[in-house]
Structures are given as C-alpha cells and as structure tokens.
Design a protein that fits this description.
The structure is a single chain. The protein is of the alpha+beta class. The protein has 19 helices and 22 strands. The strands form 5 sheets. The protein has an 8-stranded mixed sheet. A 5-stranded mixed sheet has the order 9-10-13-11-12, sandwiched between helices. It has a 4-stranded antiparallel sheet with strand order 16-17-18-22. Helix 1 packs across helix 4 and helix 6 runs antiparallel to helix 7. The chain is elongated and about 110 Å long. About 15% of the residues have low confidence. Bound molecules: adenosine-5'-diphosphate and magnesium ion (MG). Magnesium ion binds next to helix 2.
Length: 619
C-alpha cells in the first residue's frame, strides 16, 4: 500500500495556524497594535470598518521594515524578535512567534506599506490568501501601514460565525483599551466607520485611565505602589464605593502586557474583603514589573496568561499592597499591622537614619490638655489602634536629674547649673522621676538627656508632631471633628473654590465637615478638633496659598501637601511661651514621632550637646 502521509502546503498550514491566532477581528487588532509597539512607534492609528469585518488598518510611526524584511514578515516563524530558544526566557517584545502576519495573510487581503528611516523609498506588498499579488517600491512615510481587508474571505464558516458588528466592535475596543492602558506614553487613535471613537494623547497612566473611562474616574482611583526585589507594583484600585457588578474594569499588566490571572485577581479581592457588597467587583489597573526571566509567556497561544516563578510571594505582596493603600486612603477600616512597619511609613523618610532610635512614649498624652484632662484624654480615640507604651521609655535615655519640687523653677533663665545637687546627680544611675525641660527665648526647649542636653526648635518640633498626627488621622480614619454650634461661612474666589473642591475629600479625612459649597462660598459645620475657630480663616488661606493653584496629581502627594500646610499654620510659633507641661508634652510627642529629627520641610528640629562637648569648652 502506498504511503499516505504528506506535508501540508504552507498556505494550508498557515490557515490552520490562523485558526488559533485569529479568532475574530479583535485578534488581528491586537497583533497589529503589538507589532507597532514592538517597532517603537510613538503614534498609532487604528482604522476599522464594519467592526473589522471589511477593514482593519493600523498605521504606525515605528522603525519600519526593509524590503527583504517586509517580504519575510509574512513567512511563518519569521520574526526579528528572538533568535534562539533561550531568548524565550528573556522577552522584551510583545511578539515572538512570527506567526501573526503569516496567519493573517492566509485568511485575508493584506496590504503592507513600510519604510525605514534610513531609506528614501519604502516597500508596498499585497498578499491575498498567502499569495503575493504585488510588490513595488513606493514613496511612503517612515513607519508601517498594514491594511487587512475581508477577513476570513476564504473561510466562510468562520466568517458566518462572527457576531454582530456591535459585539465584534466591543471586542476590538477591549483590545484597543488594553494596549492603550499598557502604553499610556503612546498616542493612540481609533476610528470606526469614519467616526473617531478614541483620541488618546501620550500621558501618564492615571490620565490615560481617565481619558479612556471618563472624567469621573479620577476621583475613584487610589494609587498603589510597592517596590521589592521580585516585583515592582504600581497602578490604581477603585475605591470600594465605586465597585461595579461587571468585571470590565479589571486589568493586570505584566511588563506592559495585558494578562489574565485568576490567582492574582483573587489576591485583590482578598484585599477588598469586607469592603464590598456581595457580587460587586472592584476596579483595578495594576502594573507589575518583573524580571522577564521569571515569567513564562509561552504557555498560551493568544498570550493573555502567563506563568510566574514565584506566584505565592507575588500574591502576598499584591494583597498587602492593595490593602495598605486602601487603608492609607481612609478606605479600609484598619491597617494591616502584621506587615513590615517600613511599608507603613506614609512618606519618604523610611530610608533616613533617625537620630534617637527606640524611643517609646505614651502616645495618648495630649500636649495641650491641662492636668485634669490628661486622664480623660480628648485625643485618646485617635490612638486606639496603637498599643499604649510606657512613658518611661524615652526618659530612661535622659540623665537622672533630681526633680525639683517646683518644676517651674526651670522656666526661669537663672537655672543653677553649678548647684552641688545637680552636678552630683549627673553621675548617678538613679531612675529619673521626671525629665526637666526649660524654654529658652520662647523659641527653644532645652532638655536633659543621658549623654548631655538636647535643644529643640519648638515650632519645627510641633510641625513634625502635627504632620504625623494628621497623616495618621487620615491613615487610620480616626480624624476627630468638632461640630460647630453655628456653621461658619467663608467667601473665596471661584478658582479657590474649585481648588477646595478638589481637595475636599482629603480635608474631610482630616476632620473638616462641609455643609455647603457654592460658586464662591464654603460653609463648614465641623472642623478638626485641634484647630480653633479663630484660626480657621488663616489656615484655609495658607493652604490655598500652598497649593498655588496646582494640585499634585496623586492623592498621596495631595494629602501630603495639605497636611504639611496645616502643620505649618497650626504649629505653635516662635515667641510663644509654653508652660512646663506643654514643653514636656511637646518633647514627649516629638520623640514618639517616626521621624523626630527633621521637620516636614526638611529642617533640623533639634541638636544635642554631649557632656563631652561641654567638657571641651571648660578646659
Ligand atoms: P512576531 O511579532 O511574533 O515577530 P509577526 O508575524 O507579528 O511576528 O511579525 C513578523 C515580523 O515582522 C516581526 O518580527 C517584525 O520584524 C516585522 N513587523 C511586523 N509588524 C511590524 C511593524 N509594524 N513595524 C516594523 N516591523 C514589523
Ligand atoms: Mg507580532
């Protein structure tokens, strides 16, 4: 009997491959857009007719192809992107199979025009059902234009299988959006039947999301950010109150490639646990950057699923990061205290060295409460999430000076340093009963420490205390408002009101309560408990001034600017006399801060003089 096995002719093999690569017009859109991106285009135009059934045309300003490459690009397994099997494990491009153009050309009429920067003339190639119909030299701009007409013209079964234009267009828009979200720096335009559907300028990721999903989206987004050895996570999650029934606002990108990952999706849903009503879906736009060697993209022909080396760590990190952001932006009820404390530092001082480490202080101590109030502390609710710590903590660092019965004696400049009792006690190991502070020139607080003395700038110290306190209020959502008996009204310019509206949410997090906002007035029914009504006008004006008409892009820096501004205007001034209790409270609170050494504006808060330093001056 004769042998019956035959090699399939190329065009048949291509058609079979096409069955896998090209399921519908949207698949062609995806392949062509990705090729344009791989060609380093900065502008890409997608023109579609009848939901891609009659025309899919992609024009890019990328690096184009030489005449030979243009012809080769339609061969199966012809690719410029990998050369050896090892390259598969270090992919920096979207494509690598060299199948797309060959597949598309097997089942459609394709016209390619392309030119490289270095050559004056370009190439035009026409292919129909894998057959070269025309090839010529033409004048054309640098870049590539590929028009795919009459898709599935030679596979009627496939063509008939296509859904309505509305459905197929939806698929095309989905692909377009995925590419657009993954590459916000690339200008992208989409026309359908002559109508412009999207015109997306090059922008940052947040702006791109807003341009695609509409202006209202901006307020829904909570930024997320984490940088570790195995992954860099960035992007946004939607606030829980904006969750939707559908899952169409859920995007993962790995090295700028859209992927689907039920496993990582689960990590996000876990982070939202307890925050969403049943069946509601969180929105997310998450960008993961990993070393290409640690992922395997090769496991699925249409490449939306990938395999990670260290999926478990990724899961944990993603969940923690999202949870943390939700907490930081006042959305989750409490912070996740199990995580690394460094990750909780809500501002960028975590790498700086603190000069006085391991200081523990009674955080519930209120600097400006009088003696009686200290027990029934007004500020206490704000700290309920924090463990109460022993007051002796930082004081044990301080020298064992004997307490005078009248502590106020130290407010006077005539302190008797030479007194026998004082000098001798400097060298005893007795536990201190009280740390002594004393105010110098209504500007500095001088306090004793084990190694000598510390001199603290009172204004800067208080700025730091307020800054951290306000940030913490926002983070753990425990801002304390004082309800005003009569709401107060302020008049501002239209642009100032616009500015206030933009930061309204952050202000509310701090404890401001707006009862009315018109075009030129605001009415407040509540204010943060540590602000007095009389300071209000100045504080708000100062804040508007600090924004200088410019609101930082991300919610986090917005909050940061706001909190700095408030800390600046609320902090006690140089020249204010402080009672001994106030001095001690301020010192206590300063050293309870995460970053007691520098003010929110990066100024030195205190200096120390050691006994050695002093000794040197007494020779
Ligand atoms: P792959 O993208 O997997 O390499 P394709 O079939 O999509 O395979 O493309 C084949 C080759 O054609 C690519 O490797 C690339 O060299 C070239 N090519 C395709 N599209 C473009 C384009 N828009 N600009 C420049 N070169 C392109
Ligand atoms: Mg490709």
């Amino acid at each position: 009997m004769a042998d019956i096995i035959r090699l399939l002719p190329d065009h048949v093999a291509n058609q079979i491959a096409a069955g896998e690569v090209v399921q519908r017009p949207a698949s062609v859109v995806k392949e062509l857009l990705e090729n344009a991106i791989d060609a380093k285009a900065t502008e890409i135009k997608l023109i579609v007719k009848e939901a891609g059934k009659t025309l899919i045309h992609v024009i890019d300003n990328g690096f184009g192809m030489s005449e030979t490459d243009a012809r080769l690009s339609f061969e199966r397994h012809a690719t410029s992107k990998i050369q050896a099997a090892e390259d598969l494990f270090n992919l920096h491009t979207k494509g690598f199979r060299g199948e797309a153009l060959a597949s598309i050309a097997a089942i459609a009429h394709v016209e390619l025009q392309t030119k490289k920067e270095a050559t004056e003339l370009g190439t035009r190639i026409k292919i129909e059902g894998s057959k070269l119909v025309a090839q010529e030299v033409i004048a054309t701009p640098t870049g590539t234009s590929i028009a795919v007409k009459n898709l599935f013209y030679n596979i009627p079964a496939r063509r008939n299988f296509l859904k309505s234009d509305a459905v197929e267009l939806r698929h095309i828009i989905d692909e377009f959006q995925r590419v657009a979200l993954a590459h916000s720096n690339i200008k992208l335009v989409l026309y359908h039947n002559g109508n412009e559907l999207f015109n997306l300028p090059s922008s940052n990721e947040r702006q791109r999301i807003v341009n695609i999903l509409g202006g209202k989206t901006n307020e829904k987004l909570v930024p997320i950010e984490e940088d570790t050895d195995i992954v860099k996570i960035s992007g946004f999650v939607g606030k829980p109150e904006f969750a939707k029934k559908s899952r169409n606002e859920q995007f993962f990108f790995v090295n700028n490639r859209f992927i689907k990952s039920p496993y990582l999706h689960h990590a996000i849903t876990a982070a939202f646990e307890g925050l969403l009503k049943e069946k509601m879906q969180p929105s997310y736009f998450i960008y993961l950057e990993v070393n290409p060697e640690t992922i395997d993209i090769n496991i699925h022909p249409t490449k939306t699923e990938i395999k990670f080396d260290d999926e478990h760590s990724l899961y944990a990190m993603l969940r923690a990061t999202v949870k943390h952001s939700l907490g930081q932006f006042n959305i989750a009820p409490v912070l996740d205290f199990d995580r690394d404390a460094n990750l909780d530092t809500p501002y960028d001082y975590k790498n700086k060295q603190a000069a006085v480490p391991n200081i523990q202080v009674d955080r519930s101590f209120n600097p400006f409460a009088d003696e009686k109030k200290i027990t029934g502390n007004t500020a206490a609710p704000r700290y309920t999430n924090y463990k109460k710590e022993a007051t002796e903590g930082w004081e044990s660092l301080y020298v064992g000076l004997e307490s005078k019965s009248n502590a106020n004696a130290f407010s006077s400049v005539n302190i008797e340093f030479e007194s026998e009792e004082m000098t001798s006690s400097l060298f005893t190991n007795e536990e201190p009963r009280e740390t002594l502070t004393y105010q110098l020139h209504r500007k500095y607080l001088v306090s004793s420490i084990k190694s000598g003395i510390v001199i603290i700038d009172q204004h800067r110290a208080h700025q730091r205390v307020l800054y951290e306190q306000l940030l913490r209020n926002i983070t753990v959502s425990e801002a304390v408002s004082q309800q005003l008996l009569f709401p107060v009204k302020f008049t501002f310019s239209i642009s100032e009101i616009a500015l206030l509206k933009e930061v309204k949410e952050s202000l509310e997090n701090i404890g401001f309560m707006f009862s009315d906002i018109t075009d030129d007035t605001i009415e407040l029914s509540g204010i943060p408990s540590n602000i007095s009504e009389s300071e209000l006008q100045i504080i708000i004006e100062q804040m508007l001034n600090d924004f200088q008409g410019e609101i930082p892009d991300t919610g986090f820096s917005q909050t940061d600017v706001l909190v700095k501004s408030l800390a600046k205007s609320m902090a006690i001034r140089t020249g204010k006399k402080l009672e001994i209790e106030e001095q001690q409270a301020l010192v206590n609170n300063l050293f309870a801060c995460k970053e007691p050494t520098i003010s929110p504006f990066n100024r030195t808060i205190f200096i120390t003089l050691s006994v050695d330093d002093l000794d040197k001056k007494f020779i």
